[in-house]
Amino acid sequence: MRIVRFLTSGESHGKALAGIIDGIPSGFPLAADDIDHDLKRRQGGYGRGGRMKIEADHGEIISGVRWGKTLGSPIAVQIVNKDWDNWQQGMSEYETDALSIAPVLKPRPGHADLAGAVKYNTKDIRNILERSSARETAMRVALGAIAKKILSEFGIVIGSYVCQIGSARYNKPVPSAGKDLFKLFKDAEQSPVRCPDKAASKKMVAAIDKAIRGNYSLGGLFTVFATGIPMGLGSHVQWDRKLDGQLAQAIVSIQAIKGVEIGSGFTMASQPGSEVMDEIYYRKSSDPEIMPFFRKTNHAGGIEGGMTNGMPVILTAAMKPIPTLRKPLVSVDIVTKRPLAAAYERSDVCAVPAAAVVGEAMVALTIVNAFFEKFGGDSREEMVRNHKSYRAYIRRY
Ligand SMILES: Cc1cc2nc3c(=O)[nH]c(=O)nc-3n(C[C@H](O)[C@H](O)[C@H](O)COP(=O)(O)O)c2cc1C
């Protein structure tokens, strides 16, 4: 069920990106700084292209917040594109500016260019690439930061780290405890490639340097986690209510993400069942923060039967290499139909560290919806009551 809905709009070189998130109750503290912190994290990472040097993204809150608190009405956010100064005619809304820049005729393999131009019946691929560009992910990150801020009020923390760039790998077991994840996250934030391991970080930076010299690009893997998640978000009763399915869709919808693994998903496929099911334990504690059912391992990534089981939610995403290449790929001119080299437009060489931040946003937006489905209310106070009483119920169960 969709309680929290969101939409983004905006072209890569247009005036601004715009976003609306609807369904956030009243009374939650929210400020532009909450958004800007993550926007900055998305802009970083070793291997980014020139565009990120031009933009210094700021999420301006346009509606839905008064005196530092959410109103319960839709929250609209705008991120102005600094690069717009260079594109005022090229991306103008006015017919009088038509043909002020040459049309893009060379579709890039690995992009929406060709299928988009045919589908939307245009002979200027710019009409497609401006929207299919990953610039759009800045707004996902802004709206995701709002979701994160709300979830943090309930002790939920969402973070990420990079585990592979090209063939440079950081091999880690799936952590079972929140504190292990916080440590990985903290270390990742210090690394230019957002990898928690220093030796692996160095190898990843070297792999990107080699790719820059060789005029090719790299993809990789990143892990996103959410801790403090109560048992019972999502549901087993209907396919589209399963939280693992919703998370997979949210993650694969990110530009260039081609695979997703929940917990130890792909490793589990080759292991005996006796090795990879997370056995169930029970403890009684007078501490109201400690939930009675727990696991010592987390191969399931915190989700069983489409529902959270009280362990941290963990997933890993696979990103393909950046498809725009300086050493151009073979393509076909959409007008003359002659073979030619694909267009090159200023581009990242590797964007896995940034994609991990986008992954956090999509996980936050998916979990906030499941959270509101379970504890929904019109105000912060109502949700706090519902959340508290559910936790007390689990302790009594
Ligand atoms: C954060 C981020 C930055 C990206 N930067 C670029 C880039 O600079 N150049 C490029 O060609 N693709 C870039 N991509 C990937 C493309 O947007 C993506 O491959 C393309 O839109 C086609 O979509 P698909 O790979 O999902 O099929 C980026 C993706 C992400 C998530």
User: Could you give a short account of the major beta sheet?
Assistant: 5 strands, antiparallel
Q: Tell me roughly what share of residues is in helical segments.
A: 25-40%
Q: What is the number of strand segments?
A: 18
Q: What Rg, in angstroms, do the CA atoms define?
A: 22 Å
End-to-end gap: 26 Å
- Residue runs with pLDDT of under 50 for 5 or more positions: none
Average pLDDT for all residues: 95
**What is the N-to-C succession of helices and strands?**
EEEHHEEEEHHHEEHHEHEHHEEEEEEEHH
Bound molecules: flavin mononucleotide
**Proportion of strand residues:** 15-25%
Question: What's the shape?
Answer: globular
Structure description:
- Helix 1 (32-43) crosses helix 5 (137-152), helix 1 (32-43) runs antiparallel to helix 11 (352-375) and helix 5 (137-152) crosses helix 11 (352-375).
- Helices cover 34% and strands 20% of the residues.
- Strands 9-8-10-16-11 form a five-stranded antiparallel beta sheet. The chain has a four-stranded antiparallel beta sheet with strand order 1-2-7-4, with helices on one face. It has a three-stranded antiparallel beta sheet with strand order 3-6-5, with no helix packed on it.
- The chain is of the alpha+beta class.
- Strand 17 and strand 18 form a beta hairpin.
- Residues 49, 110-112, 132-134, 137, 254-256, 320, 322-324, 347-348, 351, 354-355, 358 line the site of flavin mononucleotide.
